[in-house]
Design brief:
The complex is a heterodimer of chains A (112) and B (119).
Chain A: E1 4-5, E2 10-13, E3 19-25, E4 38-43, E5 50-54, E6 58-59, E7 67-72, E8 75-80, E9 90-95, E10 102-103, E11 107-111
Parallel strand pairs in A: 2-11
Antiparallel strand pairs in A: 1-3, 3-8, 4-5, 4-9, 5-6, 7-8, 9-10, 9-11
Chain B: E1 3-7, E2 10-12, E3 18-25, E4 33-39, E5 45-51, E6 60-62, E7 70-75, E8 80-85, E9 94-101, E10 108-109, E11 113-117
Parallel strand pairs in B: 2-11
Antiparallel strand pairs in B: 1-3, 3-8, 4-5, 4-9, 5-6, 7-8, 9-10, 9-11
Classes of the chains: A mainly beta (112), B mainly beta (119).
């Protein structure tokens, strides 16, 4: 199965700063259709899990533009520019190139 | 507004069974692929099962470690998806989420239901 590694378990950030969360795959997530099958999700306490980014770089409807997905092949990044207090959450990457779908271990964004 | 509401969780002894239900609204359920995901106490997320729609003959796939013990099913007339879990083990203790694949994988999630397997 494809393993996704989110190196940082926790990241500390101050409001207004930029932060980057990385996700590394054990094999390329590029399919023959030219799309990367890598997705990002946000889990905030007391709220349902939210889909943020699909196919590595496309924001889901309604997601603020400060959330930016990038990367290719096996290396992907979720960047949050001008971090807001409501961005404090757990962030997960997911691959759906191959079954079983697998998640990264999660990165917890915390306030300094 | 899309809503997914899981029910059926609880405390169960090892070896016993439990059936989770997920009632949905706010989207065309019959064409959505539905999934079950679980989150361990350590916050690790694990994809468990998927059931596709009628046009794909309700094709089902499972995580290998739950195949034979867990069964996913759906009732399009009730806009609901289910997870029958048999021979439960302590390592099945987790929050179980119902999720949709309407346009993109896992685009909507329920609030989750806790399953505790303990003697």
């Amino acid at each position: 199965q494809i393993t996704l590694t989110q190196q940082a378990e926790s990241l500390w950030v101050s409001p207004g700063e930029k932060v980057s969360i990385t996700c590394r795959a054990s094999q390329s997530l590029l399919y023959t259709d030219g799309k990367h099958y890598l997705f990002w999700y946000q889990q905030r306490p007391g709220q349902t899990t939210k889909a943020l980014i699909y196919h590595a770089s496309i924001r889901t409807d309604g997601v603020p533009t400060r959330f930016i997905g990038s990367g290719s092949g096996t290396e992907f990044t979720l960047s949050i520019e001008d971090v807001q207090p409501e961005d404090i959450a757990l962030y997960y990457c997911l691959q759906t190139l191959r079954k079983p779908w697998t998640f990264g271990g999660g990165t917890k964004l915390e306030l300094k | 507004e899309v809503q997914l509401v899981e029910t059926g969780g609880g405390l169960v002894q090892p070896g016993n069974s439990l059936k989770l239900s997920c009632a949905t609204s706010g989207f065309t359920f019959s064409t959505a692929w539905m999934n079950w995901i679980r989150q361990t106490p350590g916050k690790r997320l694990e994809w468990l099962a998927q059931i596709e729609d009628k046009s794909n003959n309700y094709f089902i796939s499972y995580l290998e470690s739950v195949k034979g013990r867990f069964t996913i099913s759906r009732d399009d007339s009730k806009s609901s998806v289910y997870l029958q879990m048999n021979n439960l083990k302590e390592e099945d203790t987790a929050i179980y989420y119902c999720t949709s694949f309407i346009t993109t994988p896992l685009d909507y999630w329920g609030q989750g239901v806790m399953v505790t397997v303990s003697s």
